[in-house]
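Inputs:
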Amino acid sequence: MSIVVGLLALCLLFPSAAQAHDFEPERQLLVQVFPDRVDIMVEYLEAPGERSAMFSAQYLFGLGGGADEAFEELAKRAILPRMLDGLKFEVVGEQPRTNEPEVKIRHVDGRLMAAAMVTYDLPPLGEDERRTFAVHAADRSFLTTRTFIYGGEGLTRVDEPTGEDGAAAAEFFGLHRGQRWQAVFGQEKIE
Amino acid sequence: MHDERNVKTRRSFLPSLLLLFAAALTAGIGLFAGCQQEEESSYARAFQATHRTQLVGGPGALGEVGDWVMENDQIRIVIQDLSFNRGTGLFGGSLIDADLVRHDGQGDPFGGNGRDTFGEIFPAFFLEVIDPQEIVVVNDGADGEAAIIEVRGDGGEFVTMLRFFNQAMINAYDPAISDILFGSLPHSDKEPWVQFTARYILEPGAKYVRIETEMENLRNGTLTFPNSDLIGVASQFLPDFDLSGFTVPTGSAIGFGAANDLFIPGLGYDIRFGMEDVFRQSEIDLPALPGHLTDVLATSSTSGISYGYATAFDEENNFAHRMRDHYGDVDANLMLFLFEAAGYGGAFTHGVPEELGPGETFTAVNYFLLGSGDVASIRDQVYGLHGIDTQTVTGRVYDETTAQAVGKDAYVFIYEAADGSCRAEDEPTIVNQAFTRGEGYFQLQLPPGQYCHRARSGAATGDYVPFEVSADEPTNLRVFAPSSARVEAFIVDTTGNPIPAKMTIVGEYDPQPGLETRQYLFELMVGERWRTSESVNFDPDDLSPRQFIENIEFSSADGHAAVDIVPGQYTAYFSRGAEYSLVAKEFEVGPNGVARLNAQLERQINPDGYLSGDFHMHAEGSIDSGLDYNDRVISIAGEGVEVVVASDHNFISDYTPYIHRNQLQPFLRSIIGLELTTMEAGHFNAFPLRQDITSQSRGSVAWQNIPPQEIFDNIREMGSISPEDTIIQVNHPRDSILGYFSQHYVDALTGVADLPINTIPDDLTGTDRTQAVALAAAMSPSGPAFVQTDDDGEYLKDEDGNYMSTFSYNFDAIEVYNGKRLSVLRHFRMPPIEELSEEAIIYLLEQVVEPDEEDDEWEIDLNDFTDEEIAALLPTPGAILCDGDDVAVAGGLDDWYNFLNYRRPDGRYLTYTATGNSDSHHYGSPSDTEPGYPKNYFWVGHNDPQRMTSNELVDALKSHHNIVTNGPFINMRIDGQPIGSTVVSTTGTIEIELEARAADWVVGDKGLRYTLVANGEFLDETIVGDGTIELTDRVWTETITVDLDELSHTHFADGGLRDTWFVLEVEGDNNMFPAVQPAEIPPVPFDEALGVIAEPFGFGGSIEGLEPSEMVDVTPLAFTNPIWVIDDSAGEGRTEFEPPEPPKASCVDGEPSRTELRSLHDYMPFGERRLDAETVHIDRHAHDHFNPIQRELGELRDVRALFNHWHEH
């Protein structure tokens, strides 16, 4: 069974040349830094076409039209590496403990869509302390990732100047392959 | 006792395992399939569709159950049945959908998931098309041979105005010449003389359809082409109409669809100006026709499908080859490309023989081809069809800075270098284009020879590099593409919440004397986007740096916008329509660099109780748009429009799912609507409608040969509230061939429609009268859409013997102001003499100066006239110009004023609501109008688009409570009553409250001014002063007391009644660049495209300077709907408004007259025409469609909550 899943995962990870004109998959990363944890959600929209169709057909809807619980679990395991491909998270100076990722999966307009949620527990942040969160995209990462980093429960970005045009409470960037981005959070308010 | 649940699981698990194994096997095969696909056996089929899954899916798919499908192992096409045309053509039987065969590409009940973006192709016999009578499967392919379908029928008119022209050329049916000479309007249902056939042939394994078009002589006698009898008659009236030696051409009309970029060898993607240059430089005269000779038409698109058209070698009948005395020694596989406009192109391929004997046929063979997205995938096939030896060229494209391979969809352009030179100044000829695949690889076929290549993977195109293709071995190329830069921005409002907005990247350039920007700032030939300059009114001698727009991008509800640009120094402007501030950010970015910007926009005006709406909008459902619905709603919301009516051509769209998908519901509300689009009898918007998802056109109705009232009735039946509560809006009524008022000959001075055949002046006699009658009968629109008919289809006449027009006055609104088309806003007035060209002055003098009859070479010499004499002889500046018996160029605003002034011919006083809409078709395109420019402020009593109902919109428009503007908000009350009211004045004195509000950038430092229009006349300075508007904190108010007796210069109704309607007009001089682009690209209206064919025959043409300018800067302009004031100072209890009915003006026959419709403060240099026929390159780009921040305004949710509710999105 693991060979089968592995083969499928391998197949899913590498786009074939036959799909040169297919739409791109899309990936979005939301990070929210709290005083005692970091919540990370990855949302992934598979490209329409063979991969989405095959995935859905074999895993989700091949069994009398409904998703079977066990096979949905297999699907989640197969899709998770693709969702997280090339991404690496870091809380600078700390080694947070990660919990089991939660994965949701669904099929929309011929495309496979999945969301993964993971929480890193951290020691509580003191009032004057800073916490730096970083995200890397490996050189091999095949997807540019729309990334949003927010503070939560009183934390705000403290490493960006706030000009008259109003640096917002949220920050986004396009994370390209080979890039590393970081954001520093503290208790200070944006003026 | 066993566990039921476990058993169930186990039972389903076993087959599942088998399935999984099968999947793994499939996947394993699929893993290697990128290199080598298993070859399926070839086949071809033809059948009539019985289920939607048999059709072609995709954004442009129009196929329906009952249509005819042809498919093989490579492609699938749909030919529509004998229904009314669901595209923009007239008849069924045309090829409307086409796609490659795909794993998941089939139709479904909701439109399918294939990639069809094709419009329509149908054969054209000169300008005659097939009116199909039957569609037959000649071979269904079961025998393993080609599948064949035939469409057989009579001749049909694509445009009824060309009926005579077609008769002269094609002999489709008995032309009844004597009827025309006696002023009888022609029919198309006389006895057919020719049978037309389109034979579609699909071979197994082919990626093209062979289209054989056939003409068969049905008569007992010989037919001549052109018809010698008709030509003889025509030459009596048109001495210059000389067709000796003329070969009647045939070919195809091809609507490739705006989602596809047309590429033609020699022109590249610059069809618009490339063709203009062709015509300018052409020395081709009759009997040949001017145009561009090419062996292929091909499109490209990054969506994985491309389309092409080519003709077969035909030594005997190829049109250009037969006319090689005129075109030079050309091969017999070339076609003459004529025009592209409104998504359609036209090409002539063959010449009809001079004669066809009884039963004889003439056959022309052409090909419709499908490719995988680039031009090369089409050209590769055409080389094969034309028997041209080629060699394989492969290569890989790398980034110039990083030397990394680029991704997919980078452009590689191939040029012919006859002498091996690849210098830009030698202008190598562009011949091909290929897209890279995933890792930068590309492949194409080329005949051996000398070439150059260039590449573009982002915003800039690289230099020419020479290479050679030898006959002996494949060529491999290493190609470098210039690096791009990127701008990423985050846009918020003053609460810090992200908002949909627009980012405009503006750079500077140094003007080059005597050149247009397209000749040095960007290259249309390779599909680069047009860079709009800051103004169209530059002094050509001023060479100081000017601004241009490098690119435009919108943020969605997430506030995020990102776009690729050429590296350099820029200013990013952030805007959100005319209610928000404009924020500028300077930045510099190098190759492969990323500039990251933040911007905060302030809402500077928010008119209480009004919502802003754009009631004319196009997207994916329109052949001339093709814009993805997601991009559509993002760009509308980004321009600050709060309510939009979806109005695709003959397709009922609903934006609501896309608004929700992009989480724009706090910002934008959509109403389901339609632009019912006839070919030559007007365009009508209808809303709010029901969408019928069981219909492929979503419930659009037939319009072909149907009179307007019946069309109105039919679309009112689709109303979502009720037929009575469905708004019918006449769009751009003075558009030439697309305008309801123009095509039905609505008198621009009285508002009354009549047929030209009825309005020939009584004093015209003899030959002149015969000629006028024949021309009116032969060359004006006819058929049941224009002329009333009885049950037998015979034209009806009234008691005076006049044909009865079908024009219906039963509509609700007039789109007075459309896009940036100020040229059709007001009737064209005589410009100041100093602005006229010498040619125009001479033309005007020729109309009034008696020629010297004894001097055959007499002509006007301006040196013979003093300036004073010229001023005295020419029309007064500001006077409406007439051309013959009609206003030279009519405008919708003056038409609307006429309707307000006069009763209709049946005695009713009908009041129409004036609207203004963008008619936007594209996304951030320089050839387009931005959504919301102009727009409407309509009264709903609140400011929340989310809770607005369709009824509120209908109520506002039916009560005329609507303000039209491209920027400022303006308002007016009379005696406390709002716009649209009817006020009864018992004192004869009224109090008018005026108001204007505007964001800072809309007004600039140029200010605003206003004027009040009363019964069509401007109120003079004694009442309104100098009209200056002084804004304080962006607001201006003023109250004027008016005694109705003071309005003595206006027209009043007979009987001393002083009933008056009032409209407030506001204007400014501030150029709203860069938030609103100037209209810089002259359009190619459809009628002018047809004029390309008509002009060589002596029709068409205009005098430069005697028509409105087509290029304008966009400056503030707003006007209200009226308030009607009933004068009841006599205390008679009057409640019904009596229209003023001023004496009717008319044009003086044959001369530009000084007709004064109403006085003008100043000459107003309005100009500009509609831009929806543009063909500049459209950037289709992938916006990130799923936004993580699902929220209401002012609310941000946390990531965990988003995940928990993820299934509920």
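Chain B touches chain A through 69 residues (CB under 8 Å). Flag for discussion at group meeting.
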